[in-house]
Every structure is written in C-alpha cells, then in structure tokens.
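Example (one chain per record):
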Amino acid sequence: MITNFSQLVQEVKSAENRVISVAVAQDADVLEALVKAREANLATAILVGDREKIERIAREEHLDLVSFEIVDVREEKAAVRAAIDLVREGHANVLMKGLCSTATLMKGVLDKETGLRQSGLLSHLGIFEVPTYHKLILMSDAALNIAPSLEEKIAITQNAIFIAQRLGIELPKVAMITAVEKVNPGKMPATTDAAVIAKMAERGQIKGALIDGPLAVDNAFSKKSCEVKGIHSEVGGDADIAIVPNIEAGNIFYKIMSYLAGAKTAGIIIGARVPIVLTSRADSDETKFLSIATAARVS
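Predicted structure:
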C-alpha cells in the first residue's frame, strides 16, 4: 500500500519506464516537469506541437530535450489528434495536456471513433499528502463532472476505487462527503445520494471497497469527531477516498488542500484507456511532477 508520494515515486522508478504523449507541448512549465520526470527515471515523452516553439522554450529555459521525440504539428486540434493517436497506437502509456484548451483535449479524448473513451464515465481524481493525516487522500471530482447525478456519482466512486487498488489499497475506505452526516432528502439531496451509494456497497452492488455516507469532512478524517458525534463507522476517521457532491465542493477541497493545508498534490483524469495528466497552469512544478508520477504508476 502506497501511503506517501515518496514511496509512489520510488515504485515508479523501479518499474518499466512509461512514455507520455504530450498534446501541444510548447509550454515551459510542462516541459520542465517532463525533464524532471525523465531525470528521476519515471518516464520519457513524445512532444507533439510546434517544433520551433518547443525548441525555443528549451533554449530560453535551459532544458535538455535531447532524449525526447518531437512530432511537429502546429495547429492545436491536429496536435491533440496526433497525441491521442500515439496512445491509441501503443506508442505511449499516458496522455498529458500541454498548451491546449481543456475543451479541445477532452473533445478529442471523448470522440467515439478516434478517442480514448471506454464504456464508463471519465472523472478527475485529486491525490493529497498532508502532514496531519496518516496516508494519502484521494478525492473526486474537482474538475470534470459539474453536478453529477446519482448514476454518475456511482461511476466516479468506482473509478476512484479502481485507482486506489492500483495504488495497493486492497479494500479502500470511501467517504461520501456532504455538509452533514444525517440524511436530509428535502433540503440536502446529496445526503440521499450518499446514503443510497453506501447501501449499494453494503448489498454488494458496488464492490471492492467499504463505503459510508453521508459523512461530513470532519467525520471522514477524524476519529475524534466520530466519537463526539456518536458515529460508528469503519470508514470514519480513516477514509482513503472522499467523493464530493459536486464540482464546487471538489474545487474548494482541492484548492484548500493545495494552498492552505500544505498538501503535496497530484491530479489526473481517469476512466479513459490511459490516465490523463491535466493540470492547471497555476499548479506548482511539484504538482505537475507528482501528477506525472501518479499517472505513470497507475497506467
């Protein structure tokens, strides 16, 4: 079981080297993260984009790209298509967003004929290491599904469980997060969804995890909170995964962890044929590096 990012990085180093296909690679932060990943022996990359701009950035930033293949495609949509094709053809194990819009990348990924979609839902997964908690925290969905239905929350949960198991967590503990720990179907329908998903897991309809909810954030990560509130839960105070009710809650959770809690952070898109590194330009170099490492580990 991987409990911190240092352990994750070491496991990737000892595994077969991964290849990352980068869509519209002329981005200094992305190139720097890829060079760090190569130097750490985590992955190599195929850079799809404007060769002239990529090489100029490398000179300006003093980045050594000699071991990276560059595929010269200057138009954004064509570069996204070429990067996805590299994955489809087996030349790369991970897709990464460069200097292209998220909408363009996801449109290419979701294309029914030429994309990377599978039968299920794609979702975003944040991974956090904080000094105040004893293991990694996985959280979904902060960036892709805006107001998921019950069925979509089930799919988001199953995606997160799959990745947790890929990280060595045999029976992950999943907290269905809401503002309160009591079911309030009239005014807080997210609590009803949480209770339904927990009951489905109890009945074996969702396999491979212990799921409880509704749970507030304090219940999910503090045993003391559960004791004070009289909550008896195998998940409470020991959650591996937090499933949030909507993108607003997920985005707030992600940014508070990143900017105020001092968390080491990674973020990937899951549910496609391969993991997708899709970070914000505001994310730190460390976050980009750890996202590459996480994608390489679960690919």
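Caption: The chain has eleven helices and eleven strands.
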